[in-house]
Amino acid sequence: MNYAALSLEQSPPLSVPMRYYLTAPLFTMIAALILLWEGPDALASRWTPSLLAMTHFLTLGFLAMVMFGSVQQILPVLMGSPVPRPRLVSSSIHSLLSIGILFLCGGLLLGQATLFQGAVVFLGAGSGLFIMVVSYCLIRAQSGHATVTATGLAIAALAITVSLGLYLAAGYGWTAIPQSHLLTNLHLAWGLPGWVALLIIGVSYQVIPMFHVTPDYPRPITRWLSKLLFLGLAVWTMVSLVLHEIPWTGGLAAVCLGIFALATLNLKRRRRRRLPDVTLNYWQLAATSLLAAVLCWTAELLIPGLEIPPVLLGILLVVGFAMSAVSGMLHKIAPFVIWLQLNNQRQIQGRIQGKIPTMKQIIPESLARWQLRLQIVALALLLGASLWPKALTYPAALALFLAAALLWWNLVSATRLYLKLTRPGTHQQH
Questions:
Q1: What is the pLDDT of residues 8-44, one digit of tens each?
Q2: pTM passes above 0.70
Q3: Which of 82, 87, 151, 284 has a CA-to-CA distance to 385 between 20 and 30 Å?
Q4: Could you give the CA distance from residue 418 to residue 420 in angstroms, rounded to a whole number?
Q5: CA dihedral 87, 337, 122, 79 (to 10 degrees)
Q6: According to CATH, what is the number of the domain 8-420?
């Protein structure tokens, strides 16, 4: 592993990212329970209240939760720009985000205006604070790496996503505000191919070569891909607002996503270290799902009469691509952060000789591999349920719940190990 480009001494307290990591799988479990309760009717349309609530539990509750925590970790370590007062900022954003998610998803399920009003307040405050803090840190960032540029564009996409989302939620909370399917589609586009994909792409530029001993992404990709993806979304947005929605105007964004997927799969093939690594398999699953989503979108565009269910495309992007990539990063970043904190504490306490568990001891490879298997089963069953809901919805919900539960257990076990080793009077004998 290459740590040369990292500012390890600036790593924030462990509670900064871990509070987000430990919360995120719980929201996925809630989404799975909603699907289990509602059954096949939940997948009848992308507009059903239960599917909208599940989608936001996954995109806000899982993806945004992990990504908010990870950004606060990588700002000081990868970019050399620490978050001011990290504990206070982290706990404030986490609390506001968690409460806002419950208000929003409760509103989507129950249709209560007061819940949407609460969601606007809490999500607006939490997301706004996060965007302001991260923007301030990015302006001060010392690193000139492409990750900084991609993260900046991701934050801009997040600001657009949040603004559209707050407007749409306000429309349910205050009836005087008009609604629009176009704004919903823009919210979706800036949220998934925008904020989520841009941040995953930016972080992967450093994480994959560093943790998996692969060559770097090709220079043209790191220099141009995130900018072109953002530009593609901007062009599609302007055309949609000025004229009307023309699917092929999203082609540039789709090409960028396809290039990233192919480049990631190619890096795995050219890996320098041949030892098995389960977290790289998560990246394979994510890249394959992203490529499949791009190909499905392209096929629907080019083949007359072909209709790909929107729910299927959403599952490929959210569960297949984003959740797989984020779960893989969690199984690598969480042990790394814990190992780093243990190493720093041993040095501060003058016990450098004390043996620290390796990253694969903090979260065993076998448990990570079982979580990946459950993730694959959940993805396959969810894709099947989008086509045959009566037969596969309940098994899909159960598999998704089990995958999230095992992910949560892996993270809880790692945290408990850290607390055990840092308890006053504990001397490690490994």
A1: 667 888 999 999 999 999 999 999 999 999 999 999 8
A2: yes
A3: 284
A4: 5
A5: 80
A6: 1.20.210.10
